[in-house]
Write a structure and sequence with these properties.
The protein has a 6-stranded mixed sheet with strand order 9-10-21-13-24-11. It has 2 domains: 88 residues, NE0471 N-terminal domain-like (2-Layer Sandwich); 260 residues, Clavaminate synthase-like (Double-stranded beta-helix), CATH 3.60.130.10. Helix content is 23%, strand content 29%. The chain is α+β, with helices and mostly antiparallel strands. Strand 1 and strand 2 form a beta hairpin.
Length: 385
């Protein structure tokens, strides 16, 4: 096997101890790491099982024997070699790789990347110059990092040209095209299929709940805003869910356990999904929030005896969503773009009088996976080294 290209600081293993299902490695710094034999075989970096060019596993995980053991462990200057009980080819690991991928660690308090916020965030809204982001990968990656943490950031000084928002998306990653629009023109329409294309107020909501995987990034570009009223409103769903967990854990449980049908349609398209309104990650933080009252279909998936408590739970969530201290109000000016995490941040709008001028925004969707991948590559954390 040729030496892989991971550039970690050198960590030296000084001894190893074999056990029935795992081995213990003792490090020069006094630490100890335990690795199951099946895990070691599964992650073997030898050329028989791993492609050094693509950095991808070639061997099939299901072929690893459940009773796998080591016959011998040899520690070199900077590597570890294992001879296997089933007679298969030896496995070879660089010590630095094993040290940096050790999984036998004491779990401390999880450190969420979510920086939760309320109305106070209006005075410290993370902002970046549009031209800087478009010209400099490092600044663009810093912007993505901030977006991953806050879920809502602002770009200033963007041209107000038609489809500039599409050019922005293509600069960093891709447009997530949906059935209704690739580039949506958010303005009063003579034949609207949803409330966004009227001058009515919009309650707090997330977009595209009718999709099984709603797009998780909205890019909202202000082109004209000459009307009276129409301020945008934002609420951090991550904070709301954390509040609900403290104030009413039973309500949170109900909203995570029972599917609800969400539907949005037009004359050309129809989206329909069936998922719980709230989905949590393994750490218990918000992973995906579906909240758009006008898209919720008649309840058919909640058990009869649970329906009254489901409505209680929804009211408890709505009370927090609409609490003034949780709501950020921002009137967008021409040339601003807002990036909104649609799986986390709810948005809404005050009513406006379009008799005094034009309110015109353009919007595209993107995927955070793509933006995060861009950031990792720029910051040197990409999978291919």
């Amino acid at each position: 096997m040729s030496k892989h290209d991971f550039n970690f600081a050198t960590d030296k293993a000084v001894s190893a101890e074999s056990h029935d299902e795992y081995l213990s490695l003792y490090w020069q710094d006094g630490g100890v790491s335990r690795f199951h034999y099946q895990w070691l075989r599964d992650n073997c970096r030898s050329v028989e099982r791993f492609d050094p060019a693509t950095q991808e596993r070639k061997a099939l995980t299901e072929t690893i024997p459940g009773d796998l053991r080591s016959n011998a462990i040899r520690i070199g200057e900077d590597d570890i070699r294992i001879t296997w009980s089933d007679g298969a080819a030896d496995s070879h690991f660089y010590a630095t790789w094993l040290k940096n991928n050790a999984y036998d660690v004491t779990a401390g308090p999880s450190q969420s990347r979510q920086h939760q916020w309320g109305s106070e965030y209006a005075s410290s809204l993370q902002s970046f110059g549009y031209k800087d982001v478009m010209a400099d990968d490092v600044i663009a990656a810093t912007m993505v990092d901030a977006f991953e943490k806050w879920g809502l950031i602002r770009l200033t000084g963007a041209p107000t040209d038609d489809r500039e928002v599409e050019r922005f998306a293509d600069r960093l990653a891709y447009v997530r095209e949906i059935a209704f629009d690739r580039v949506a023109n958010i303005k009063v329409s003579v034949d609207p299929y949803t409330l966004g294309f009227t001058n009515s107020s919009l309650p707090m909501h997330t977009d595209c709940s009718g999709y099984s995987w709603p797009p998780n990034v909205m890019v909202f570009h202000c082109i004209q805003n000459e009307v009276a009223g129409g301020a945008s409103q934002y609420v951090d769903g991550a904070k709301v869910i954390a509040q609900l967990r403290k104030s009413n854990p039973d309500a949170l449980r109900i909203l995570t356990e029972h599917d609800v049908e969400f539907r949005l349609w037009s004359k050309q398209a129809d989206t329909l999904s069936q998922y719980p309104p709230v989905m949590l990650d393994q750490a218990g933080d918000l992973a995906l929030l579906r909240y758009a009252n006008w898209t919720v279909q008649p309840l058919k998936t909640v058990p009869f005896d649970t329906v009254p408590r489901w409505y209680d739970a929804w009211r408890a969530l709505a009370e927090l969503v609409n609490a003034p201290e949780n709501r950020l109000s921002h009137r967008c000016e021409p040339g601003e773009m807002l990036l909104i995490n649609n799986h986390r941040v709810l948005h809404g709008r005050d009513a406006f009088d379009d008799g005094e001028g034009i309110r015109h925004f353009q919007q595209v969707y993107m995927e955070l996976d793509d933006l995060s991948g861009f950031r990792r590559i720029v910051q040197g954390e990409g999978g291919v080294k």
